Amino acid sequence: MSNSYLVVIDMQNDFIDGALGTPEAQAIVEAVAQRASSFSGTVVFTKDTHGSDYATTQEGRNLPIPHCIAGTTGWELAPALETVRTHRSAPVFEKPSFGSLDLARWLVAQNDAEPIDSIELCGLCTDICVVSNALTIKAHLPEVPLSVNPALSAGVTPAAHDAAITTMASCQVQIL
């Protein structure tokens, strides 16, 4: 039996149809939910998580659009993804920045307990949090096959999405 992981990155309301939503993000919700629902391995989620002090953070100063404030509707996973998460009792890694060190460390521990066959990433935003998590995981687990499905990811813009896919391919992340 395969020991595979699917990491669903930041499929939260604010990135879909909220403060930072895009038509491209809206277009992938059902397909990501279907992939997470039917995945035969372990599914985990990340959530971009900010506090009421967001405006005073470096990210808040550089991107002065409050989003994913803990406890708000925008912070919650899209309903279709929350249904999958609940049904699977999938873990969620809340992260205050683009990449999750906690997720990477957890995956290392999982790999130490039983070697991981593959890790697949999907979600939002390809050019910010997906690429950040891909490279963080790759740095922690360089010998574990890592992939990203561009059809199940969306960037801030289509051009930024494509650039991130190119960057990940250059860093030996398999593009599905």
Structure summarized in a few sentences:
The protein has 176 residues and is of the alpha/beta class. 43% of the residues lie in helices and 20% in strands.
Walk me through the topology.
Blueprint: E1 4-9, H1 13-16, H2 23-38, E2 42-48, H3 58-62, H4 79-88, E3 92-95, H5 101-113, E4 118-124, H6 126-140, E5 146-154, H7 158-170, E6 174-175
Parallel strand pairs: 1-2, 1-4, 2-3, 4-5, 5-6
Helix pairs in contact: 2-4, 5-6, 6-7
Determine the N-to-C terminus distance.
21 Å
Structural class: alpha/beta
In CATH's first tier, which class applies? Alpha Beta
How many beta strands in the DSSP annotation? 6
Beta content comes to 15-25%
**Succession of helices and strands:** EHHEHHEHEHEHE
What CATH calls the topology is Rossmann fold
Helix content: 40-55%
The Rg value, from CA coordinates, equals 15 Å
Mean pLDDT: 98
CATH superfamily: Isochorismatase-like
Description:
The protein is of the alpha/beta class and 176 residues long. It has one domain (4-175): 3-Layer(aba) Sandwich (Rossmann fold). It is 43% helix and 20% strand. It has seven helices and six strands. It has helices at residues 13-16, 23-38, 58-62, 79-88, 101-113, 126-140, 158-170; strands at 4-9, 42-48, 92-95, 118-124, 146-154, 174-175. It has a six-stranded parallel beta sheet with strand order 3-2-1-4-5-6. α7 links the parallel β5 (146-154) and β6 (174-175). α2 (23-38) runs parallel beside α4 (79-88). It is globular, with a radius of gyration of 15 Å. It starts with a strand and ends with a strand.
